[in-house]
């Protein structure tokens, strides 16, 4: 019995030490991110990493050691632990599954066209309960939902009610958000470029260069990527280039910058066809 007690005690001590080590690591990461200073003289670039669903993916992102914003899946039966990831992230988004034109991902429970505003409001209130610090969301799939003017109006009005912001991932060339933005004279930020429509490092290398170019051309840009090993490697290799040539910031910083520049309508860039996937 005495031996069993000693074994259990050692196990608890090891677990405490492990938890403290993780806590210290995240604390150090937080302070490094906090010390990052925005430069008014550099073009602004936001990089969002979509599809984050577990701590291993978040750790891989964090280990790039660049201020890249994770976009985390909502809590579902398929992704039950995602609220825990948000407790470690200084800044995060929710990657909101919306109805697509050509396929349905039952596990992620996408919001479908025709959903009532009351149902949207109830859903988003539950989402905020799981993610108390939530501010920004972008769409996962959504090529059908984001082209529906009425559904997008309802969604954005619910976001307004709950003090949330939408960044359109632009999964369809006929999205409704630019029309709503023009009619309401409001800023709705949009994805300018995907970095990894092809999950190959060489492709992502070129896309990173294109993202930097567009940020330089118009002063700002938003890029979206995914937690592919090839993407992680490409971003690590591009760290010095990104740090030197652009001001890599989060969505809140970009929104603040655009407002200071009196930019009320997001000017989405159009590269070549690969960016419209």
Q: What is the residue-averaged pLDDT?
A: 87
Radius of gyration: 20 Å
Strand proportion, as a percent range, falls in 15-25%
pLDDT under 50 segments (min length 5)?
1-36, 272-277
| Structure classification | alpha/beta
Q: Report the major sheet.
A: 9 strands, parallel
Helix content: 40-55%
Number of helices: 10
| N/C terminus separation | 63 Å
Q: How many β-strand stretches?
A: 9
What coarse outline follows from CA principal-axis ratios?
globular
Q: In sequence order, what are the helices and strands, one letter per element? A: HEHEHEHEHEHEEHEHHEH
Strand and helix layout:
Elements: H1 2-34, E1 44-52, H2 55-62, E2 69-72, H3 82-88, E3 93-98, H4 117-130, E4 136-141, H5 149-161, E5 165-168, H6 177-184, E6 189-190, E7 193-194, H7 201-218, E8 220-225, H8 229-237, H9 239-245, E9 247-249, H10 251-260
Parallel strand pairs: 1-2, 1-8, 1-9, 2-3, 3-4, 4-5, 5-6, 7-8
Descriptive keywords:
alpha/beta; 277 residues
What does this structure look like?
By secondary structure, this protein is of the alpha/beta class. It is about 45% helix and about 15% strand. The chain has helices spanning about 1-35, 55-60, 80-90, 115-130, 150-160, 175-185, 200-220, 230-235, 240-245, 250-260; strands spanning about 45-50, 70, 95-100, 135-140, 165-170, 190, 195, 220-225, 245-250. Strands 1, 2, 3, 4, 5, 6, 7, 8 and 9 form a nine-stranded parallel beta sheet that branches. Helix 2 (about 55-60) links the parallel strand 1 and strand 2. Helix 4 packs across helix 5 and helix 7 crosses helix 8. The longest helix has about 35 residues, at about 1-35. It starts with a helix and ends in a 17-residue tail after the last helix. The model is unreliable at about 1-35 and about 270-275 (pLDDT under 50).
């Amino acid at each position: 019995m005495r031996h069993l007690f000693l074994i259990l005690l050692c196990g608890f001590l090891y677990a405490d030490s492990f938890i403290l080590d993780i806590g210290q690591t995240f604390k150090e990461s937080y302070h490094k991110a906090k010390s990052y200073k925005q430069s008014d003289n550099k073009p602004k670039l936001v990089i969002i990493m979509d599809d984050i669903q577990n701590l291993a993916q978040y750790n891989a992102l964090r280990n790039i050691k660049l201020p890249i914003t994770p976009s985390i899946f909502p809590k579902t039966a398929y992704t039950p632990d995602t609220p825990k990831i948000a407790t470690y992230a200084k800044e995060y988004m929710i990657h909101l599954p919306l109805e697509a034109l050509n396929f349905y991902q039952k596990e992620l429970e996408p919001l479908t066209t025709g959903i009532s505003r009351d149902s949207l409001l109830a859903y988003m209130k539950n989402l905020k309960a799981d993610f108390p610090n939530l501010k920004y969301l972008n769409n996962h799939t959504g090529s059908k939902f984001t082209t529906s003017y009425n559904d997008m109006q309802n969604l954005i009005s619910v976001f307004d009610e709950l003090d949330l912001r939408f960044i359109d991932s632009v999964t369809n060339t006929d999205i409704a958000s630019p029309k709503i933005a023009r009619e309401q004279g409001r800023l709705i930020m949009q994805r300018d470029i995907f970095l990894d429509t092809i999950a190959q490092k060489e492709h992502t290398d070129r896309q990173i260069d294109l993202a930097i170019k567009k940020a330089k051309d118009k002063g700002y840009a938003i890029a979206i990527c995914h937690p592919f090993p090839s993407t992680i490697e490409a971003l690590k290799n591009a760290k010095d280039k990104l740090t030197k040539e652009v001001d890599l910031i989060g969505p809140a910083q970009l929104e603040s910058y655009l407002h200071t520049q009196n930019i009320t309508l997001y000017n989405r860039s159009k590269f070549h066809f690969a960016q419209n996937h």
